[in-house]
Design brief:
binds 3,4-dihydroxybenzoic acid, binds magnesium ion, alpha/beta, single chain, binds S-adenosyl-L-homocysteine
């Protein structure tokens, strides 16, 4: 098996059960035209996020890391009419690209983008009582994934989900001498070993984005 096969399978999935409409394609084109890196979730993973939003019966979703808004559009489409998604993005120019794509996709009224380092946005969310969230998707700077997860755990309702992208990173999760992000993601897993408030798993993935994986945690009742 090689990367070409993994990509071909993702393409086939995209031609069959995970087709993208014009608004999603438009969001990717706008991101590319603006020079954003093409590091959004793969179409199959994006569809899974949408299904998880629906399965959780989510009305409030929080995302760390907006980029051009691809994953946010998919999740917002899984929300009911009165559902809301807040997405946090460090770069103002990325946030602006995303906002335009949200309007074009018809989800502009359901999504709020906040600009700035995500950690700095959290006290305001807390003060406003923006939570508790039904689903939190963590997909920003990987070294902070454990910090975002810790906050998310305190602000997600029982029965809600916390999903963290890019936790495997070509297998570096298994390397005790890996880079700073790898150390942080190992620490997150070790933290969850002793955390009774969640039941979690990590699924390794191959596809258009190479070899990686994501963590899904169900928040248990009190
Ligand atoms: N969720 C997006 C992809 C996000 S890529 C999708 O699947 O469509 C990661 C994003 O996190 C980038 O846009 C990057 O600018 C942003 N980011 C990096 N560090 C951040 C930080 N400290 N706070 C908020 N966003 C950050
Ligand atoms: C990067 C970030 C992501 O969220 C991702 O899915 C892939 C790569 C990155 O920062 O390189
Ligand atoms: Mg990611």
């Amino acid at each position: 098996m090689d990367q070409e096969t993994f990509s071909a399978v993702d393409r086939f999935i995209g031609e069959t059960i995970v087709s993208e409409d014009e608004a999603l394609k438009g969001a990717l084109e706008a991101a590319e035209a603006a020079g954003l890196p093409a590091i959004q979730v793969s179409p199959p993973q994006g569809k899974l996020l949408q299904l998880l939003v629906r399965l959780a019966g989510a009305r409030k979703v929080l995302e760390f890391g907006t980029l051009g808004g691809y994953s946010a559009i998919l999740m917002a489409r899984g929300l009911p009419e009165d559902g809301r998604l807040i997405t946090l993005e460090a770069k103002a120019e990325y946030a602006e690209v995303a906002r335009q794509s949200f309007e074009k996709a018809g989800v502009g009224d359901r999504i709020e983008v906040r600009v700035g380092p995500a950690l700095e946005a959290l006290p305001a969310l807390e003060a406003e009582g923006a939570g508790p969230f039904d689903l939190v998707f963590i997909d920003a700077d990987k070294v902070n994934t454990p910090n975002y997860f810790t906050w998310a755990l305190d602000h997600t309702r029982a029965g809600g989900l916390i999903v963290a992208d890019n936790v495997v990173r070509e297998g570096s999760l298994a390397d005790p001498a890996g880079d700073e992000a790898a150390q942080a993601l190992r620490r997150l897993h070790e933290m969850l070993r002793d955390e009774p408030r969640v039941s979690a798993t990590t699924i390794q993935t191959v596809g258009v984005k190479g070899y990686d994986g994501f963590l899904v945690a169900l928040v248990e009742g009190a």
